[in-house]
Amino acid sequence: MQTPGYTGWDRTRWLPEPSKSTYRSDFERDRARVLHSSALRRLGAKTQVVAPDADDFARTRLTHSLEVAQIGRELGRSLGCDPDVVDTACLSHDLGHPPFGHNGEKALDAVAEDCGGFEGNAQTLRLLARLEQKKSFEDGTSVGLNLTRASLDAACKYPWLREDAPLKPDGKRSKKFGVYEDDLPVFEWFRHGVHGTRTSMEAQVMDLADDISYSVHDVEDGVVNNAFQLRWLARGEHRQRVVETTRGWYLPTTDPAEIEAALDRLEATDQWVSQFDGSRRALAAMKDMTSQLIGRFCTAAFDATREVFGNEPLTRHNADVVVPAETQIEIAAMKGIAAAYVMTSEQRQPLYAKQREVLTELVDLLWSTGEQFLEPMFAFDWEQAPDDDARRRVVIDQVASLTDSTALEWHHTLVQGKSFTRVWI
């Protein structure tokens, strides 16, 4: 069964494939390809907020992606999107993240400056359409997982090149972009016929599901791991800290009073957990709070979107997700709470500096030794690369593919020249 609102054009693959059994749709096959990819598995050992081995409770990039997919799939289906297209986009949205999360992204962007920079979303497209090997053209050129046009477009959160990134309110160009120069052929293929830089309906659902997920789950992780208590927000200096962090990170042009009002509304909900003591009752209450907030944000977006675009299936480029301004501020305020107490913690700054140092030194070492220490597939890419920029990109691809633990292991052995022993029980 094919979901209404999608055509044969949407189901086309860059490399045509023979017809297969009809018990699965083309979009179900897309989801399965991402689900079975090695890039998705590696997210289980990549940082979401804290290191994967730092705590048994905290989320990894993989568990975060699974939660985003659950939220996005249901919201997308309620709006008429094919649930598997949205699911595929959600499962894919963080595939390009390197070791150490956004901090690692900053490090790789700096060392890749001369070959086009590094951006996790552009790396995601590179993985889907090149690095995750499943299909190839006759000349051996990889087409990655060879997903359908609709699924690739849905996974493209920032459909523009680095130099075409939009300007932020302060006049500076955004660092977010979704495609590298040498991945333009597949980008132009799946974006053919799309006007400008608008994102598809499915990509917008994925983006909102991501925002909703980490806004509530990062707060849940922070509270359960004793980084902060929500009752702290009742104290002036803490409230000001959250408001200022929310403005600085997410809402630079928003009146602080509107952020204050959003915090007031959230605190006024029956499910708000001001005090957490680690008991079973408290854990249940925290889970209920996250569930209710997800429902609150999704319902607000669903109602607003249907009010504008009606009750027909909303797919591809025939509509946009509408999120009420108050809801946007509430989501940002939740993200601001986690950012204020976890991401900007002074205790974590030396760790962040060390992580950037590890990746920078690892790139330098691999660049200086050529294909010697690269994994076989990246060594092949190095040999095929036509110039230094392409070879530099191969090294970046290699380092970005590593998990947090393997990046540390490679640095420990290759850069520091020390032995590395894993402890097995």
Automatic annotation (TrEMBL):
InterPro entries: dGTPase, dGTPase-like, HD/PDEase_dom, HD_domain, PHydrolase_assoc_dom
The entry's keywords: Hydrolase
Pfam families: HD (PF01966), HD_assoc (PF13286)
SUPFAM superfamilies named in the record: HD-domain/PDEase-like
Residue span(s) of domain HD: 61-215
Highest taxon of source: Bacteria
CDD domains documented for this protein: HDc (cd00077)
Record-given protein name: Deoxyguanosinetriphosphate triphosphohydrolase
